[in-house]
């Protein structure tokens, strides 16, 4: 039997990348797990997710051959993690991609070479099987004739067609490794007992997708103008084979974490089946948490933040099963960082911040668990009061969904009380939640339907706008209604490409320029509305034609200079703000998007917790200080490596080529950026933050103004202040604060007098109302409308009633404009007879179109039908009679 090559996870990853680098591929670093400019994805969930812009032709890559090891997160079946051998939330996808370059022959032959060549993986060819789409005779022939695979090792599989909706799609070919009869978990003759079936013996290790069709509307499949290759090999799966591990969890990616948990728990991995699951869940989830938080995602109650919160809480609960009662996940983070350091150094660099976030979340959850236990006990007590032996599935689901309280823990507590759970109702609620989640989650995200119009375009258009505001240039292409034309006339809306252009195309958060296209006599021929980026970064001018334009003619291109200057001031201010943000909040605060227009700037960043007014004021002070110090803004064309040596800040989620543009503002800010900027910071004039707020899970947004916008904003604030001065009849705006304090004091004193008068009035009414006691079946009650200031005074009257013990039951109603307030109170005599305030309030509140609830001895409700108050109070008598009958 052939001895298998022994490789570590680091060696396997590097071997794969080295192989495809030798085949002319550009190795790209893993993208952030948080998708950039792709709202269709909650997480980057595959290698191809980061290649969509290349596959649909939106962007043309510098090298059409790309290879990567992409970290990915999938959370559609979290419950299976730890239970099966290969389910993970975080995993790595090794992939090689061809964007309109090589196709099936190279894709298949190179895959086989990497897997079987002694220079590479050196796997036994006899152990390998492949599946192909039945109609894909080309792939079948390549496997059989080019590779030399026997027909018995090639399986035609109907499901081998990759299609996620409109956009590129095509047949695929999967490669399986035969782990041997000892791994066979199905009886002979079972319909899934074959390479390609759902079984443990034949393990899928690689999927080769041949993207050759455009899936168009109405399910039309046309050949792609540019055919692509997309492959994915699971690092964890392949490693389990090389390290002869029963599951992915017994490899060097997970075992060090499991060993750490053994030390923390004092329990050995594998002592029981349940114990194994807990170790695996913790090892898997802590990796996902470390990587996701490192990439800027933070726990919260929505979106990807909710996913992280759920992963963390599952980990804590499984820790409890291993007798770990205190926060412990932070102690696993250094282990994850050490395992992944060579390819993902950012986890170690950010480990202090990751640990801080996780510890904060663990401590909060432990408090939540305590609250959950209290709520469980309340539900149990309520069931016993009602003499029920089964707990409501809805109540148990609320514990699970709202408190994050696992059903297993609820079962444990409930079983001790000899109660059961309505599992059918619980599952119905779970199903509803899954439906809501599916509805909220956008589709995996079809790519745009590929068009060869721009992707085949070889025009190299030079951007001259860094140094020029206008340029004479030749019009090389006119696009009208997705076709190339030679001439366009007045009224046409078209796209234009020139040999060179001063117009900045929209990218990096900076909006595209606007301006004019002129003839030699400065007559306006077209208005440039905006400019977009072509597949190779060419400025594509979106224009409205005013007079005839013809291809291959020279025209004068003039940007709107005033608008550009305003945009530049705002853009440079975002660089200053980015560094000030880190100075004040810490290095964990990362840019998560920006918008730079002429009127304002918007800056999104990752941060857990609120930003205080003092912190905002300090950021604003720093930026204005740097503006006043008039730093020179210098731009340098250099290599990516050199820019990083100089301390350049790379922006969140951006991909950079070998040659980059470094923007330096003195020694204060150094960022990689392709945008346009001022020459010195004094040109910005003034910087003013106008708002700051949370916009999603762990993401916040600052909106700010500079130069003219900031000046106009300040003028408006001064006008408001002057108007306030006149209304308050003070001589100077400086006196406004002291005048407001005086008015507040006077108002407080007036309110106190008012409160006192209302209290006296209410007490006077109470003396009369509390004597109006009625009795039904030995239960004494008071049910009256009363004139009081608000609900607070109703409660005060209820306290007085309770102290004086006027009756067994009290019901008071208050009309307030279009609203009604009701309170119900019961003494212990009434409660012992089985009467509950909450039940009575639920009976009478519908009369006022309201609802409410409360404890057995006190309840309250609100309503919107004042005319129903009389009927509500009258209904008290009937209710008491029914309860006592």
UniProtKB/TrEMBL annotation:
<dbReference type="InterPro" id="IPR018163">
    <property type="entry name" value="Thr/Ala-tRNA-synth_IIc_edit"/>
</dbReference>
<keyword id="KW-0820">tRNA-binding</keyword>
<keyword id="KW-0067">ATP-binding</keyword>
<dbReference type="InterPro" id="IPR009000">
    <property type="entry name" value="Transl_B-barrel_sf"/>
</dbReference>
<keyword id="KW-0694">RNA-binding</keyword>
<dbReference type="InterPro" id="IPR023033">
    <property type="entry name" value="Ala_tRNA_ligase_euk/bac"/>
</dbReference>
<comment type="similarity">
    <text>Belongs to the class-II aminoacyl-tRNA synthetase family.</text>
</comment>
<dbReference type="GO" id="GO:0006419">
    <property type="term" value="P:alanyl-tRNA aminoacylation"/>
</dbReference>
<feature type="coiled-coil region">
    <location>
        <begin position="740"/>
        <end position="767"/>
    </location>
</feature>
<dbReference type="InterPro" id="IPR018162">
    <property type="entry name" value="Ala-tRNA-ligase_IIc_anticod-bd"/>
</dbReference>
<feature type="coiled-coil region">
    <location>
        <begin position="416"/>
        <end position="443"/>
    </location>
</feature>
<feature type="binding site">
    <location>
        <position position="673"/>
    </location>
    <ligand>
        <name>Zn(2+)</name>
    </ligand>
</feature>
<dbReference type="Pfam" id="PF07973">
    <property type="entry name" value="tRNA_SAD"/>
</dbReference>
<protein>
    <recommendedName>
        <fullName>Alanine--tRNA ligase</fullName>
        <ecNumber>6.1.1.7</ecNumber>
    </recommendedName>
</protein>
<feature type="binding site">
    <location>
        <position position="571"/>
    </location>
    <ligand>
        <name>Zn(2+)</name>
    </ligand>
</feature>
<dbReference type="Pfam" id="PF01411">
    <property type="entry name" value="tRNA-synt_2c"/>
</dbReference>
<keyword id="KW-0963">Cytoplasm</keyword>
<dbReference type="Pfam" id="PF02272">
    <property type="entry name" value="DHHA1"/>
</dbReference>
<dbReference type="InterPro" id="IPR018164">
    <property type="entry name" value="Ala-tRNA-synth_IIc_N"/>
</dbReference>
<dbReference type="InterPro" id="IPR045864">
    <property type="entry name" value="aa-tRNA-synth_II/BPL/LPL"/>
</dbReference>
<keyword id="KW-0862">Zinc</keyword>
<dbReference type="GO" id="GO:0005829">
    <property type="term" value="C:cytosol"/>
</dbReference>
<feature type="binding site">
    <location>
        <position position="575"/>
    </location>
    <ligand>
        <name>Zn(2+)</name>
    </ligand>
</feature>
<feature type="domain" description="Alanyl-transfer RNA synthetases family profile">
    <location>
        <begin position="7"/>
        <end position="716"/>
    </location>
</feature>
<dbReference type="InterPro" id="IPR003156">
    <property type="entry name" value="DHHA1_dom"/>
</dbReference>
<keyword id="KW-0547">Nucleotide-binding</keyword>
<comment type="function">
    <text>Catalyzes the attachment of alanine to tRNA(Ala) in a two-step reaction: alanine is first activated by ATP to form Ala-AMP and then transferred to the acceptor end of tRNA(Ala). Also edits incorrectly charged Ser-tRNA(Ala) and Gly-tRNA(Ala) via its editing domain.</text>
</comment>
<keyword id="KW-0479">Metal-binding</keyword>
<keyword id="KW-0175">Coiled coil</keyword>
<dbReference type="GO" id="GO:0005524">
    <property type="term" value="F:ATP binding"/>
</dbReference>
<dbReference type="GO" id="GO:0000049">
    <property type="term" value="F:tRNA binding"/>
</dbReference>
<dbReference type="InterPro" id="IPR012947">
    <property type="entry name" value="tRNA_SAD"/>
</dbReference>
<dbReference type="InterPro" id="IPR050058">
    <property type="entry name" value="Ala-tRNA_ligase"/>
</dbReference>
<dbReference type="InterPro" id="IPR018165">
    <property type="entry name" value="Ala-tRNA-synth_IIc_core"/>
</dbReference>
<dbReference type="GO" id="GO:0008270">
    <property type="term" value="F:zinc ion binding"/>
</dbReference>
<feature type="binding site">
    <location>
        <position position="677"/>
    </location>
    <ligand>
        <name>Zn(2+)</name>
    </ligand>
</feature>
<dbReference type="GO" id="GO:0016740">
    <property type="term" value="F:transferase activity"/>
</dbReference>
<dbReference type="GO" id="GO:0004813">
    <property type="term" value="F:alanine-tRNA ligase activity"/>
</dbReference>
<dbReference type="InterPro" id="IPR002318">
    <property type="entry name" value="Ala-tRNA-lgiase_IIc"/>
</dbReference>
<dbReference type="GO" id="GO:0002161">
    <property type="term" value="F:aminoacyl-tRNA deacylase activity"/>
</dbReference>
<keyword id="KW-0648">Protein biosynthesis</keyword>
<dbReference type="GO" id="GO:0140096">
    <property type="term" value="F:catalytic activity, acting on a protein"/>
</dbReference>
């Amino acid at each position: 039997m052939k001895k298998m090559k022994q490789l570590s996870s680091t060696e396997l990853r590097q071997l794969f990348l080295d192989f495809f680098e030798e085949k002319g591929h550009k190795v790209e670093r893993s993208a952030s797990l948080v998708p950039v400019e792709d709202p269709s994805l909650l997480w980057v969930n595959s290698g191809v997710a980061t290649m969509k812009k290349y596959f649909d032709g939106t962007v043309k890559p510098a090298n059409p051959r790309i290879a990567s090891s992409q970290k990915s997160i999938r959370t559609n079946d979290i419950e299976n993690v730890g239970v099966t051998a290969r389910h993970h939330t975080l995993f790595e996808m090794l992939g090689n991609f061809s964007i309109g370059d090589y196709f099936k022959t190279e894709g298949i032959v190179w895959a086989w070479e990497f897997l079987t060549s002694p220079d590479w993986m050196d796997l036994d060819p006899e152990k390998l099987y492949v599946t192909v789409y039945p109609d894909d005779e080309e792939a079948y022939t390549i496997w059989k004739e080019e590779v030399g695979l026997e027909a018995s090792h090639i399986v035609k599989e109907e499901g081998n067609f990759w299609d996620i909706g409109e956009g590129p799609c095509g047949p695929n070919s999967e490669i399986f490794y035969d782990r041997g009869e000892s791994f066979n978990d199905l009886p002979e003759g079972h319909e899934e007992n074959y390479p390609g079936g759902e079984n443990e013996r034949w393990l899928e290790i690689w999927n080769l997708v041949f993207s050759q069709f455009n899936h168009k509307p109405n399910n039309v499949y046309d050949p792609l103008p540019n055919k692509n290759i997309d492959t994915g090999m699971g690092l964890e799966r392949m490693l389990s084979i090389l390290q002869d591990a029963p599951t992915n969890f017994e490899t060097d990616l997970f075992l060090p974490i499991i060993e750490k948990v053994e030390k923390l728990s004092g329990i050995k991995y594998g002592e029981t089946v349940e114990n194994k699951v807990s170790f695996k869940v913790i090892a898997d989830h802590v990796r996902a948490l470390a990587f996701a938080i490192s990439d800027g995602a933070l726990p919260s109650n929505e979106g990807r933040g909710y996913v992280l919160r759920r992963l963390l809480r599952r980990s804590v609960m499984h820790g409890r099963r291993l007798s770990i009662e205190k926060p412990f996940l932070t102690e696993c983070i250094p282990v994850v960082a050490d395992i992944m350091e060579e390819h993902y150094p950012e986890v170690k660099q950010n480990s202090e911040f990751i640990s801080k976030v996780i510890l904060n979340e663990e401590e909060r959850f432990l408090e939540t668990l305590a609250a959950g236990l209290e709520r469980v006990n309340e539900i149990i007590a309520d069931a016993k009061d009602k003499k029920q032996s089964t707990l409501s599935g809805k109540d148990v689901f609320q514990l699970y969904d709202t408190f994050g309280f696992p059903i297993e823990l609820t079962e444990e507590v409930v079983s001790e009380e000899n109660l059961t759970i309505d599992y059918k109702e619980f599952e119905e609620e779970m199903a509803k939640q899954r439906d809501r989640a599916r509805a909220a989650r956008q589709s995996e995200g079809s790519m745009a339907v590929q068009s060869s119009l721009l992707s085949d375009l070889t025009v190299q258009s030079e951007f001259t706008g860094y140094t020029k505001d206008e340029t004479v240039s030749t019009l090389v292409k006119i696009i009208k209604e997705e076709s190339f034309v030679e001439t366009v006339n007045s009224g046409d809306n078209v796209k234009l490409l020139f040999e060179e252009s001063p117009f900045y195309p929209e990218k990096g958060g900076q909006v595209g320029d606007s301006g004019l296209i002129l003839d030699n006599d400065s007559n306006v021929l077209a208005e440039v509305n905006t400019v977009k980026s072509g597949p190779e970064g060419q400025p594509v001018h979106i224009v409205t034609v005013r007079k005839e334009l013809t291809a291959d003619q020279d025209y004068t291109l003039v940007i709107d200079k005033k608008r550009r200057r305003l945009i530049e001031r705002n853009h440079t201010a975002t660089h200053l703000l980015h560094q000030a943000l880190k100075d004040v909040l810490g290095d964990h605060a990362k840019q998560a998007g920006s918008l730079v227009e002429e009127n304002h700037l918007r800056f999104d960043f990752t941060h857990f917790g609120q930003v205080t007014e003092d912190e905002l004021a300090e950021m604003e002070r720093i930026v204005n200080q740097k503006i006043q110090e008039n730093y020179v803004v210098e731009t340098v064309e250099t290599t990516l490596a050199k820019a990083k040596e100089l301390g350049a800040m790379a922006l969140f989620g951006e991909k950079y080529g070998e040659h980059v543009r470094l923007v330096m503002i003195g020694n204060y800010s150094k960022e990689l950026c392709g945008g346009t900027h001022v020459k010195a910071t004094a040109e910005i004039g003034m910087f003013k933050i106008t708002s700051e707020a949370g916009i999603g899970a762990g993401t916040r947004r600052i909106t700010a103004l500079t130069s003219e916008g900031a000046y106009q904003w300040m003028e408006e604030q001064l006008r408001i202040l002057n108007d306030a001065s006149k209304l308050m009849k003070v001589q100077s705006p400086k006196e406004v604060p002291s005048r407001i304090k005086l008015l507040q004091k006077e108002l407080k004193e007036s309110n106190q007098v008012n409160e006192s008068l209302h209290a006296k009035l209410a007490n006077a009414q109470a003396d009369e109302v509390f004597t109006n006691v009625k009795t039904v079946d030995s239960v004494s009650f008071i049910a009256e409308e009363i004139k009081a200031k608000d609900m607070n005074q109703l409660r005060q009257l209820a306290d007085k009633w309770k102290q004086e013990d006027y009756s067994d039951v009290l019901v008071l109603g208050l009309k307030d404009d279009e609203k009604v307030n009701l309170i119900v109170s019961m003494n212990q005599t009434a409660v012992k007879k089985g009467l509950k305030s909450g039940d009575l309030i639920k009976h009478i509140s519908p009369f006022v179109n309201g609802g409410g609830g409360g404890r057995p001895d006190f309840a309250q409700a609100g309503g919107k039908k004042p005319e129903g108050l009389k009927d509500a109070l009258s209904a008290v008598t009937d209710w008491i009679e029914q309860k006592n009958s």
